[in-house]
Each structure stands twice: as C-alpha cells, then as structure tokens.
Amino acid sequence: MVAKNIYPTAIQKILATVCAVALAFSLSGSILAQSNVADRFKDVKYVKTAEKKADEIEGELEIDKQNGGIRFLSKGSELVKVEKPQVTSLLYERTSRPRYVSGLLLAWPLLFTKGKKHFLTIQYKNSAGQGEFALLHLDKSNYQAILAAVEAATGVKVERTID
Fold first, then answer.
1. Which domains does the chain have, with CATH numbers?
2. pTM of the complete model
3. Could you give phi then psi for residue 146, rounded to 5 degrees?
4. What is the 3-state secondary structure (H, E, C) of the chain?
5. C-beta of residue 136 within 8 angstroms of C-beta of residue 72
6. Which residues of 148-161 are buried (b: 16+ CB within 10 A; e: fewer)?
7. Phi/psi at 121 (nearest 5 deg)?
8. Based on the number of CB atoms within 10 Å of its own CB, is 103 exposed (0-12), middle (13-18) or buried (19 or more)?
9. Distance of alpha carbon 10 from alpha carbon 107, whole angstroms
10. Per-residue pLDDT of the chain (163 residues; tens, 9 = 90+)
11. Nearest to 83 by CA among 71, 99, 97, 98
C-alpha cells in the first residue's frame, strides 16, 4: 500500500491563489461595469421655488451616462427627472457674499473673506413643450465633477457665470 500525501504542495497553493485572484478581478470588472451606468452625487440641494420663499431639499443627483438623463432623488422619491432631448440650456453660477456675522462674532479676519455658493440651473421643456427649470445648490466638494458629468451626459455646454 502506497501512502498518499494529503497536504497541498507549493505548486497547488500557487495555482489556488492565482485562480482566486483571477476570479476576484473578473467579478470586480463586471461590478464596475454595472456601476458606471450612472453617476450619483450626494450633498446636492434642490431649490424648490414658491411664491414668497424658496425651500432647499437635500438629496442626490443621478446622471445617467448612457441616456443623458438627470434625476434628483430625495428620501427615495424622484423630484426632478429630465431626459437628454428635453434639456435646452445649463447655467452654472457662483455667488459670493461677505462673512460679516462670522467676522463680528468669531474672529475679525473673517471680515475680509467671502462665502461662496454654487448653483446649477437646468432649463428644459416638459412633455407638453412648456419651458421649465430646476435650480440645484451644489456643494463645494463636488460641483466641478457634477458640471463635467452633466455636460458629458447631455452634450449641452454649461454656461458659467461667476459673481
């Protein structure tokens, strides 16, 4: 009777490791391919305009790379949906205002600085052909990525106005 070696050899260990790594790369590639269908941006606020006061609703902006659609989602509901052919123009505005209150209450050097806000206005035509707009307040950490993604997805050049 011949005794069999039940312990894996070094070659078997290397083959098992190579197979595991190859499997991991192939699975991660398919997951990444699925995630690249749409870009999602957090820290975006939809400015809902009313007669007297505007309310800012926090949510996520989703930009579909394949179809060029733009959606604003808040708490699981869709507040704005614009398809690529509906977009007529895109306008980016950066506003600034002096920090008087912070300068007086916290530290006087803040009197010489300005707070900046970033806005994206999407003008589009609804299904009835009437002109509408969506005003989005963008965060300073991701406004440049949002502008580039919207421009690439819709094919419409973003007009830039800096105050």
1. 37-162 (2.30.29.30)
2. 0.69
3. -65, -45
4. CCCCCCCCCHHHHHHHHHHHHHHHHHHHHHHHHHHCCEEEEEEEEEEEECCCCEEEEEEEEEEECCCCCEEEEECCEEEEEECHHHEEEEEEEEEEEECHHHHHHCCHHHHHCEEEEEEEEEEEECCCCCEEEEEEEECCCCHHHHHHHHHHHHCCCEEEEEC
5. yes
6. ebbeebbebebeee
7. -105, 125
8. middle
9. 66
10. 555 656 567 777 776 776 666 656 665 554 444 455 778 899 899 998 877 788 889 999 999 988 889 999 998 889 999 999 999 999 999 987 776 666 666 776 766 677 788 999 999 998 888 999 999 999 989 999 999 999 999 989 999 887 6
11. 71
- pLDDT for 30: 46
Provide the sign of the torsion angle of the four alpha carbons 105, 101, 161, 79, taken in this order: positive
Closest CA to 38 of 64, 70, 60: 64
**Structure tokens of 150?**
């919207």
Residue partners of 104: CB distance under 8 A and separation at least 6: 111
Here the tokens at position 27 are 């699975």
87 phi, psi to nearest 5 deg: -70, 125
Identity of the residue numbered 117: K
